[in-house]
Amino acid sequence: MTDTTLDMSLKGTMTKPKERSEFAHTIDGTVGKPFLDGKDTKFHCRGVNVFYNGTKQAIFDTSVDIGKNEVIAMIGPSGCGKSTFLRCLNRMNDTIDGCLVTGTINLDGEDIHAKAQDPVLLRARVGMVFQKPNPFPKSIYDNVAYGPRLHGLAANRAELDEIVESSLRKAGLFNEVKDRLQAPGTGLSGGQQQRLCIARTIAVSPEVILMDEPTSALDPIATATIEELIDELRQSFTICIVTHSMQQAARISQRTAYFHLGYLVEVNDTKTVFTNPQHQLTENYITGRFG
Amino acid sequence: MSSTTTEKVKATLAKRYAREKRFRAYGFISIALSILFLAILLLDIFSKGLPAFTSTYIKLDVVLDAPTLGLETNPSQEQLKVANYNKAIQTSLETMFPGVEDRKQKKALKALVSDDAQYSLRDQVMANPSLIGTTQSLWLLADDDIDVFHKGGIDRATPEADRRIKDFQLVWLDKLEAEERIESQFNTNFFTRGDSREPEQAGILSALIGSFYTMLVTLLLSFPIGVAAAIYLEEFAPKNNFWVDLIEVNINNLAAVPSIVFGLLGLAVFIQFFGTPRSAPLTGGLVMTLLVLPTIIIASRAALRAVPPSIREGALGLGASKTQAVFQNVLPLAMPGILTGAIIGMAHALGETAPLLMIGMVAFIMDVPNGVTSPAAALPVQIFLWSDSPERAFIERTSAAIIVLLAFLILMNLLAVILRKKFERRW
């Protein structure tokens, strides 16, 4: 992981990559269509590097555009940096000690690392849903109302009620919990908890929702519900989703980004990535040769 | 292949089960031993201490005539206050046991009742002056030696020279017993009075109130400071920072510092340098604060660390600031652990004696303190003082004070359990 000065002269196809030094030279910039040429761009990332504790580099020189109202799936083997990259987008990495992010990330043309940019405001605009459902140990109502209360989005109780109800409706949870809004959120099933977390995120009316493997802890039925939900949410939000399931990426996303050990290898329309991958590593991964 | 595996496993099974059985036996033995020692301790304390909750009273027919009391007609309250009640009691005793001429025996006769009897008589007369001129049958507090004897603490079979109650006194006591003029009543003095040189008059109220004020000061200082320090160190302080690590190591070391050292520190810093009053709950509370701070900080940090990071991330991901995430989401979840730590720390402080000796709370204090700056004793120090006293009757009072202290400790631990249950939330 520390070998960042790569010998680029050793180009060639490797069959069985073991060490970064063995295959990294096969990654020479991102292939496919990472850029949208300014059309409806939400996130504009150029040359993003992430370091842990000064020496360990987790993300190498990643440049990609994320469009408005699209679902972009980030796939790749474990430890490839897809979650780390996702957490750059709302500066959640700031909360980790010793984590350093360099490069440019613009949200609607504004640098999110600018001095004037407040991380609290950024996170209100870029919401996040985590891998493990993490409802607060409060009532269902208070869980959803937490964000609006935090930011003072509702002027009175009636408005707050409305925000809570509409968020739960959008998350497809309202009918299941409308009779027990005061029951603890932790008492719901795993799938319901994750939808509650999505409702909680929606309640703040963000522009982008980041999802870090939102269905990895759920059963197939709950997963299907969430996938349908993501498809509906696309109408109003930009969604970046990290997933281990290639089928899921194929089902719900318009664009797919493939990460490999810290490098963004390939970005393209989902259909193209899965039917006609342009990079050997992508092909190896989606055909199940490793990962 | 599979058969050989089965055989090999079978061969080791007996050994494995034997090891498990042995381990369980060790565990059972250690639990049984601790219960045994606890039982012995409690049995000893209770068997010694329970008699202290009653005290012996003697019924006397006291003639309250004005000449004996040295009073004129229509005395003022002031005159009533200084009247000679001692003589009235002495006269009634002499009437009951006529023919005592020997000076030593006369003194012993007077000593059947406590010094306190004259004051309780005075209070009764002052409250109702019309008693003067009448003869009253009154239960008066007996002397501590009589008390010990009446509770069976002195054996008649002991040679007279080795006995606190001499043969002539035994005759009197037998007569009192025969006339049903001696009995045990509930010892209210023990709970309503301060310390005294006379065991029958000694109570734990001043020590109890002193301990209460000390604990109050300790709680008010150590809880906010300790929790704030824990929150800062756990949530806000930079990780892997030399100074933060140094502070952490020192806090852990402080938890192991002998408590007498804190007492010396309190003497040098609080009393000598800052001039806080000697023997006062304020100074005691300050010293105890230093003593329990490491406990509270360590327990609070452990409780904060036990809150899953997903809770923090969830709040931060919604746009909460670090402070909001900590105070609205993390702290409520850590509260049961923090409270448990704080209460255990307080219980530790309640039973701590050594530092209080250093700051003068070991002084003989009869008055019930009326604030954090007035001189006071504390429960464990009171126990220490009484255990050191030569009077037989203090033995049972020492144990009784231990029972009271244990009762408070159990109450505090119960409170910890209840608070834990109340605030405990699942996630």
Explain the overall architecture:
- The complex is a heterodimer of chains A (291) and B (427).
- Chain A has helices spanning 20-23, 82-88, 119-125, 140-151, 157-170, 174-177, 190-202, 220-233, 246-252, 270-275, 280-286, and strands spanning 31-32, 41-52, 56-67, 71-75, 99-107, 110-111, 126-129, 208-212, 238-242, 255-260, 263-269.
- By secondary structure, chain A is of the alpha/beta class.
- Chain A has one domain: Rossmann fold, CATH 3.40.50.
- In chain A, strands 1-11-10-4-9-8-7 form a 7-stranded mixed β-sheet, sandwiched between helices. In chain A, strands 3-2-5-6 form a 4-stranded antiparallel β-sheet, with helices on one face.
- The radius of gyration of chain A is 20 Å and the shape is globular.
- Residues 1-22 of chain A have low confidence and may be disordered.
- With 427 residues, chain B is mainly α.
- Chain B has 3 domains: 2-50; 53-193, no CATH class; 205-423, MetI-like (MetI-like fold, Orthogonal Bundle).
- Chain B is 66% helix and 5% strand.
- In chain B, helix 10 runs parallel beside helix 13 (281-306), helix 10 (205-236) packs across helix 17 (379-387) and helix 13 packs across helix 15.
- In chain B, 36% of the residues are buried.
- The interface between A and B is medium-sized, with 28 and 25 residues.
